[in-house]
């Protein structure tokens, strides 16, 4: 027996209450609990048999208990006399009934609070567990206290439900309250809440006729003295002041208090004991006035002219106190200018809601307090505070209103602040950017203490603003600094934590990253992950690397209690290597502060760099890896030395001379062998970081998105996707929040998402816009303009002018920074999945050898061998999960010569129509649908020509390295291979397999008689089998497997990108392409677009002349993936979506020269796909197998050529089996003639279908 068979987590000293309950269940299940609990004692056993049974059960129970405990806890029970004694010792130790333990648990019970956004069930269970622990130590909590504590600990958004529950006349039971809370949470999720107070966001106003919306006194500050606990009207200092100075006026105002009036704005100065906002019906509307609102849950504006990073969302109801409802339709950021004791500053209000029908702009005190700092109200104004700076944010202007003393800044002025520095601080600010937005003190430490090599400034000048930092580093109040001493040796303690999932995956599908930090040096290594399950493998990789580089051994691994760190795989590895794992107590991530703080630092640094460079969220992986590279080379307070982590780790100073600003543009030299004589010698790229294990840079080519590794580049560090930066702007910004970079403790959760602008709104940008997004990440909802390269205004030192020593800089240990499918055998063997790729290559090579594909011979004189290469692919199932790694050896057939190496090449495959006919017949006759795959299908064909090929990489014959492979079989990549396979397959089907081929559809095969039907559809090497007889199906599979090497994939569920469901009981077959259509939307950035109901705008006629009318469209469309998008939609149309046929036929006409209007029309089709995710084909038994066809044509619908468009669709078993929409070849003189031409096309298809079905079912 071992611990794994118990299926419970081992007790590590931190989860006794839960472990105790689970152990009791295990012991009861094994009939051992009565011995452990003391229900049966040894002295109660009368006979020797009973005593022997008791001892046996006691020993067995003792073994179960000990095997379910970590080694560190075993000393507590090692000397116990039996299982009962051991259990008692554990209860006495972990459930002490001392006063101190009771006090500790009661304090935790009454101080546990639910944060906004937390899961309600998790919070309820947390309180219930604490109550059970209190009961175990002799301090039970009654049900009333439990209910009161639960209600008092809920977040502010549940105040309305609390009020409703408190108003009930009956007793509030625990079951009632918890059920109402869970129901409320479920209702909010169903309504699609948007996160921060989401759809329940409300703006409270002064008062209405019923005096609604009054908050709890203790929750809000007095508007007069700023203290919490009373209203302004009850303020002692105000009462005293009014008694002495305004007694007559107070009497009059008091008498007016309850007058019935419309409460659109605050009416009286004495009504300051109410919170206020602005209703919809205020007479004087102005988009320039901002009022300070202590009741609104969000900053709100009625105009978006000052907003940037604007993103639209589905309308959200906002409730006003006059029972009116307005709708928020989007959000964005607004830069505000304000006067502070230090002069004019700028600050950023984030997530400001856009509510067009709002009468005034509202500055939310609650949101400002939560995001920035406290707000204090006095009788003449209100004051905000952030980072020790206090300034006036609102002034009283009569009638109890506070007008905001900040002025919104236009976006074009705000953008200038993004890259500004103080006067003369250009170089300092540039190095601030190069080093990943390092703080002023950190940069000053590098310069003054000579920590790095290559810094070309002698002193650091203060810069006042970096908007990337302002938007990327806002924090909460941190925990008290950790006082634990650092270790004295490398690798003695390794801290680790996982960050994610990110809201958007990288280009290689990564959504997490894990950090491993050495305690002594603080040297950090980052790995990007697709899932948390990869942590164990990455730690093994890290340990091997670190121990090899340092010559030390890892002793301790410090982490939280995440399941990824408690996996059996990691536990076995640590046990074998003598590595002890240390876990933090539950719900205390602060005790894993080193890793938590590093993750936050990396995320903030990455966010700042992406914000400054104007890159989308998909670049977060590149940014995090670059942040790791830079942080390892910057000083940190944590190690208390004038050294960087890199220097402590390697004993070398880091070389900083070649650092560049992340995301900047650069011209990268094109290698000579990859360009023609008069081609450009360089290409425009964006800088993405530092190459893995190479002394080079990583770039992404702007025009193609290809990743390049090069050291030959000319950088333009003032040029980014959003245009040039000016490093000498004099404006400045107040950076709201705590920006400390080197503390290890922080309250709350680690940032695990990137905050960058979203491009989902409907507004298209002007053709004069300087904003440009790369085609791999741009949202198609906002077509952007690609500007031509401009002359740079700032030139930093180019690589040609840097010394040889500076050129020899150290590259980061960047692991799996891209993780794309390898393109060469060498890159596959150097990747993180090298073992899996090698296994795939071995399998392919063994298959080639078994099929006697070639023989090794010397190359004859006068003949030239063709090359070969490995092609790698990760195959996924219909759920997107990795199914297997596949490698295939492919001949370079493009170098073959007609008449020498090949003759004919034609080879047919099954039409999609034929496949749909098989599926419709399966629905009609209740057929079973199965799928098989022919392994290395092309190798079954024999060659008639003599073809010589180079030996494959990685499998060179050591005894005959100069020989070549004389091919005997039709290898993949040869021009004649498909034809050879088709002839081999057809020959066997005709003469050996007993399966006949339908004349009009060569790759569709069937077996007779009808009562013993087997239909087979073949698409290259994928085979569908449909049969009504299970035995016949098995015999057919056996016959195929004897002739060819087959893979039996079982029941058909995924074929050529189509998801197929066959319900034989109901006689229904459904065909969809959900996974493929989602990948299309994601690829083109339309997965969050606004859906539309039709694929085409009926009022829009697309023409080629539009390109001439829309000037400069060449620059606009040069990098827009129009053809690729048309191709993706076309495959959906061909397979399962007849509703797209007309739209694809129209849009595909402009693939060679599209203009922005064509692009907008294509995006509409993608938005239509977003609205119809579940559309597909459905075949049913009840509809029968009779074919019904429909056809029609417009007349002169193409306004340029005046040609008409024909269309037809054929139905069978209730679903579409064939369809077409195509422009006619000639101009027709009448609508009748156009319809006759359409009828002719439909008749041809009808005849083809008739012959096909006649051959199949007769």
TrEMBL record:
The UniProt keyword set, sorted, is: Aspartyl protease, Hydrolase, Metal-binding, Protease, Zinc, Zinc-finger
* Ranges for domain CCHC-type: 222-237
Which residue intervals define the domain Integrase catalytic in the entry?
485-653
Positions of region (Disordered):
187-218, 240-266, 719-796
GO BP annotations of the record are: DNA integration; proteolysis
Q: Where is the composition biased (Acidic residues)?
A: 738-762
The source's superkingdom equals Eukaryota
Q: Which SMART domains match?
A: ZnF_C2HC
Q: Name one GO molecular function term.
A: nucleic acid binding
- Stretches with biased composition (Basic and acidic residues): 187-197, 719-728
By its UniProt entry, which PANTHER family does this protein fall under? TRANSPOSASE, PUTATIVE-RELATED, TRANSPOSON-ENCODED PROTEIN WITH RIBONUCLEASE H-LIKE AND RETROVIRUS ZINC FINGER-LIKE DOMAINS
Q: What is this protein called?
A: Polyprotein
